[in-house]
Amino acid sequence: MRVCSVQEMRAMDRYAIENLAIPEEVLMENAGLASAAVLNREIGIPGKRFVVFCGGGNNGGDGFVVARKILSDGGSVKVFLLSDPGKFQGAARTNLEIMKRLSVPLVRVDSPEQIHQDISHCQGIVDAIFGTGLDRPVGGLFKEVIERINASGKKVLSLDIPSGINGDTGEVLGIAVQADYTVTFGLPKIGNLLYPGFARGGKLSVCHISFPPDLQEGPSLKICLNSPPPAPPRDPDAHKGSMGETLFIAGAANYFGAPCFAALSFLKAGGGYSRLAAPASMIPSIAQKGGEIVFVPQRETAAGSLSGDNYETLLSLSAKMDMVVLGPGLSLEEETQALVRTLVQEIPCPLLIDGDGLTAVASRLDLIRERKAPTILTPHLGEMARISGKSVPEIRRNRIGLLQETAADLQAVIVLKGAHSLIGLPDGRVYVNLSGNAGMATAGSGDVLTGTIAAMYGQGLPVEEAVCKGVFLHGLSGDLAAEVRGEDGMTASDILDFLPEARKADRAGLPEHLRRRYAGAEVL
Ligand SMILES: NC(=O)C1=CN([C@@H]2O[C@H](COP(=O)(O)OP(=O)(O)OC[C@H]3O[C@@H](n4cnc5c(N)ncnc54)[C@H](O)[C@@H]3O)[C@@H](O)[C@H]2O)[C@H](O)CC1
Ligand SMILES: [K+]
C-alpha cells in the first residue's frame, strides 16, 4: 500500500474534485460514513452516547457527518465546536448547516469545564479537531480539551489522524490525542505510520473515499509499506556456493559479538558461505560460537583492530565475493578507518557498510558517490546524522525527506534503522517496514541485519529487493522471538536464533495477527 504526504493527499483530493468531478461533499460523506461504520463495529452505535469534538477545518466537517450518522443509526450525540462556526468553508460549512437543522446539540466551547459532564457520560469520543491541516503546535483551549479526552478513559476514534500529530512526520505538535481507532482517508499519511504518531492512532483503518486505484497507486507516490515479494524457491540442487558467498570485514578487540552476529546471521538467514576477516587474535574465541564461519585471520594494530597492511588480501578476496559487509565492530582506530576508506573505493562487488564503517566514510562521502557497484548503508539515527550532516532532532522532523535526499545524493540504498525502519532507494522510493518490536533495540541487532540482507542477495534477489526482504525478515525474526521469549531481555542471539523460523514462516504464510499487523491498515 502507498503512503502519502499531506501535500500529496491534497493533490489527490483536488484531482478527484476537479478532474473526476467527485464533489467535495461526496468525499466527506464517504469519510464520515466509513468512520461511523468503524464506530458501530467497535463500540456499537444504537443506544449509545457519543461526543464529537470538531475543529474549524474539513476534519471538523468529517466530524459533522459522523454525528449525523450516529443520530440516524440510533445513537445519541453531542457536538462540541472548538472553533468559530463562521470559519467553516465548502463541504464542512454545508455539513454544519445540516447539523444546525438536526436535533443534535451543537455547543461552541469556550471553557474546558463545559465538556466535563458529557465526556463522563458518553461511551465514545470522536476526535475531529485537526487532520492534515495542523500547522502549528497545539495550545490553549485545544490543548486543554485534548488533555481531557486523553484522561477520560473513554474509547476514542480519531478521524484521519489523531489531532496533534503532524501528518508528514508523525511528530506530536505540543500534545496529541491518544486514540483507540483511527480511520484515515484516501491513503495512510506518513504521520499515521511513523512513531510517535503510529502509537497514538490505535487500530488503523483506511477508507479510499472512492478514489480510483490509479490515483492511489500512481508512480508519483514514492512511499510504500515494505511488503517484499516471496523469496525465490531454494533450488533442490543447491550447493553452498550457489547460496551466496559473503565476506564480513569486521571486529576489533572489545568487539567480539559484532563480527560473530554478522557472519552467523548470514548463515541463519539461508546464506551459503560466510567468510569473516577479523583480527587474528580474536578468531579462536569467535570460532567457539560460530564454527560454521570460514575465518580469514588478519594482521592487527597494537590496539587490536585491523591494520592497514591487510589491504591487498582483503581486496583480492573481495573480488571473489557476491557481497562484502564492511564495518561491524571495526572500532574507530584511525589506521582501520583509513583502511575502510581505501576499501570502499576499490571493492568491486555490492558493498554493505555498517557501524564503524559508516563513521569512516561520513567525512568522505565522495568515496560512496564514486563507487561503480551498488552500495548499501545501514545507519541508525546517530550514524545518519553523521552521514547527512543534520542533527538527530532535525532528522526526526524530516526522516523521509532526508532519507530521500541522502539516498539520491549518494546513489546508495539506505536503511534508516529504528522503530519502523525506512528503506530509501536512490530514485526517491521509500519503504516503511512494520515488522520488528522494541525488544530489538539491543546491541548486536544491527549486526544481525547486515547478514540477513547479504543472505537475501546471496540467494538471488536484486540488491534493492534483498534489502527490503532482509529488513522485513530481521523484524519478523524479532517478532517471533518476542512471542516466545518476550521483548524484555531479548538479545541479538535471540534474533539470530529465530531467523530460520522467520524464513520458514515467511514461506509458509504468516500467522493472521502478524499478517494484519504488517499490512499497516485495514482497508474498509
Ligand atoms: N482525501 C482526504 O483526505 C479528505 C480529507 N478530508 C478531511 O480534511 C482534513 C483536512 O482539512 P483541512 O481543512 O485542510 O485541515 P484541518 O481540518 O486539519 O484543520 C485546519 C484548521 O485548523 C487550524 N489549525 C491548524 N493547526 C492549528 C493549531 N495548532 N491550533 C489551532 N488551529 C490550528 C487551521 O488554521 C485550519 O483552520 C483531512 O484531515 C480530512 O479529515 C475531507 O473531508 C475528505 C477528503
Ligand atoms: K483528527
From TrEMBL:
<dbReference type="Pfam" id="PF03853">
    <property type="entry name" value="YjeF_N"/>
</dbReference>
<keyword id="KW-0479">Metal-binding</keyword>
<keyword id="KW-0520">NAD</keyword>
<dbReference type="GO" id="GO:0005524">
    <property type="term" value="F:ATP binding"/>
</dbReference>
<dbReference type="InterPro" id="IPR029056">
    <property type="entry name" value="Ribokinase-like"/>
</dbReference>
<dbReference type="InterPro" id="IPR017953">
    <property type="entry name" value="Carbohydrate_kinase_pred_CS"/>
</dbReference>
<feature type="binding site">
    <location>
        <begin position="417"/>
        <end position="421"/>
    </location>
    <ligand>
        <name>AMP</name>
    </ligand>
</feature>
<dbReference type="Pfam" id="PF01256">
    <property type="entry name" value="Carb_kinase"/>
</dbReference>
<feature type="binding site">
    <location>
        <begin position="131"/>
        <end position="137"/>
    </location>
    <ligand>
        <name>(6S)-NADPHX</name>
    </ligand>
</feature>
<dbReference type="InterPro" id="IPR004443">
    <property type="entry name" value="YjeF_N_dom"/>
</dbReference>
<keyword id="KW-0511">Multifunctional enzyme</keyword>
<comment type="function">
    <text>Catalyzes the epimerization of the S- and R-forms of NAD(P)HX, a damaged form of NAD(P)H that is a result of enzymatic or heat-dependent hydration. This is a prerequisite for the S-specific NAD(P)H-hydrate dehydratase to allow the repair of both epimers of NAD(P)HX.</text>
</comment>
<feature type="binding site">
    <location>
        <position position="59"/>
    </location>
    <ligand>
        <name>K(+)</name>
    </ligand>
</feature>
<feature type="binding site">
    <location>
        <position position="446"/>
    </location>
    <ligand>
        <name>AMP</name>
    </ligand>
</feature>
<keyword id="KW-0067">ATP-binding</keyword>
<feature type="binding site">
    <location>
        <position position="447"/>
    </location>
    <ligand>
        <name>(6S)-NADPHX</name>
    </ligand>
</feature>
<feature type="binding site">
    <location>
        <position position="163"/>
    </location>
    <ligand>
        <name>K(+)</name>
    </ligand>
</feature>
<keyword id="KW-0547">Nucleotide-binding</keyword>
<comment type="similarity">
    <text>In the N-terminal section; belongs to the NnrE/AIBP family.</text>
</comment>
<keyword id="KW-0630">Potassium</keyword>
<comment type="subunit">
    <text>Homotetramer.</text>
</comment>
<dbReference type="InterPro" id="IPR000631">
    <property type="entry name" value="CARKD"/>
</dbReference>
<dbReference type="InterPro" id="IPR036652">
    <property type="entry name" value="YjeF_N_dom_sf"/>
</dbReference>
<feature type="domain" description="YjeF N-terminal">
    <location>
        <begin position="9"/>
        <end position="217"/>
    </location>
</feature>
<feature type="binding site">
    <location>
        <begin position="58"/>
        <end position="62"/>
    </location>
    <ligand>
        <name>(6S)-NADPHX</name>
    </ligand>
</feature>
<feature type="binding site">
    <location>
        <position position="329"/>
    </location>
    <ligand>
        <name>(6S)-NADPHX</name>
    </ligand>
</feature>
<keyword id="KW-0521">NADP</keyword>
<dbReference type="GO" id="GO:0052856">
    <property type="term" value="F:NAD(P)HX epimerase activity"/>
</dbReference>
<feature type="binding site">
    <location>
        <position position="127"/>
    </location>
    <ligand>
        <name>K(+)</name>
    </ligand>
</feature>
<dbReference type="GO" id="GO:0110051">
    <property type="term" value="P:metabolite repair"/>
</dbReference>
<keyword id="KW-0456">Lyase</keyword>
<feature type="domain" description="YjeF C-terminal">
    <location>
        <begin position="225"/>
        <end position="506"/>
    </location>
</feature>
<comment type="similarity">
    <text>Belongs to the NnrE/AIBP family.</text>
</comment>
<dbReference type="InterPro" id="IPR030677">
    <property type="entry name" value="Nnr"/>
</dbReference>
<dbReference type="GO" id="GO:0052855">
    <property type="term" value="F:ADP-dependent NAD(P)H-hydrate dehydratase activity"/>
</dbReference>
<dbReference type="GO" id="GO:0046872">
    <property type="term" value="F:metal ion binding"/>
</dbReference>
<keyword id="KW-0413">Isomerase</keyword>
<comment type="function">
    <text>Bifunctional enzyme that catalyzes the epimerization of the S- and R-forms of NAD(P)HX and the dehydration of the S-form of NAD(P)HX at the expense of ADP, which is converted to AMP. This allows the repair of both epimers of NAD(P)HX, a damaged form of NAD(P)H that is a result of enzymatic or heat-dependent hydration.</text>
</comment>
<protein>
    <recommendedName>
        <fullName>Bifunctional NAD(P)H-hydrate repair enzyme</fullName>
        <ecNumber>4.2.1.136</ecNumber>
        <ecNumber>5.1.99.6</ecNumber>
    </recommendedName>
</protein>
<feature type="binding site">
    <location>
        <position position="258"/>
    </location>
    <ligand>
        <name>(6S)-NADPHX</name>
    </ligand>
</feature>
<dbReference type="GO" id="GO:0046496">
    <property type="term" value="P:nicotinamide nucleotide metabolic process"/>
</dbReference>
<feature type="binding site">
    <location>
        <position position="380"/>
    </location>
    <ligand>
        <name>(6S)-NADPHX</name>
    </ligand>
</feature>
